[in-house]
Amino acid sequence: MIPVGSDAISPAPHHDIYSIEDLKQFVRSLKEATEWKKPVFVKIAAVHNSAAIAAGIARSSADAVVINGFRGGTGAAPRVFRDHVGIPVEVAVASVDSKLREQGIRNEISIIASGGIRSSADVAKVIALGADAVYIGTAALVAMGCRVCGSCYKGLCPWGIATQRPDLVERLDPEEGAKQVANLIKAWTLELSELMGAAGINSIESMRGNRDRLRGYMLDEGTLKVLDVKPAGA
What we know:
234 residues, four-stranded parallel beta sheet, 10 helices, 42% helix
């Protein structure tokens, strides 16, 4: 419904959602429109009250809550926002997982972590803190050839990824890019298996929320308390 020639606000303000009740109605309308065949995810930023927000989302019939940490963001995001707005995804995931367990609704919704997942170690840590799964964005783009120059919004991506210009798009080989992303996922899977073996865990399900396998290094007491993780050496 945006008039031709006018700017589109990203992200959209969603003026039809001002409460959990509004969100619940919206989620159910989406499910009805897709004949209850498609999962509905609600994405939120990792902020100080993510736990309370996620508790409401868990009661909205949504299938998963996606928590986006402050280290995520596209090349179109202002640097000051990308680096200073929000909190680390690890802290948000741990607080959300704890809150949902306290309220007895943890099994009613999945937690997906995104923003700042740069290696298999990040995957292992965030799952041990309570996430069911992770999203990756920048890591996959880097595997395709992205150099993280932060100019996605210009439409002049020299690697042919974030652009619609035919001459630039030709620089990207989709087949080769697919192989490189597949190699990334395979490498992370092997590394994750090794990390799990070192921790004495034989499945992702056993790792989920298993904070006893984690130790905090150079973290302040407040952060350790939120993460519910013991300090290194303890």
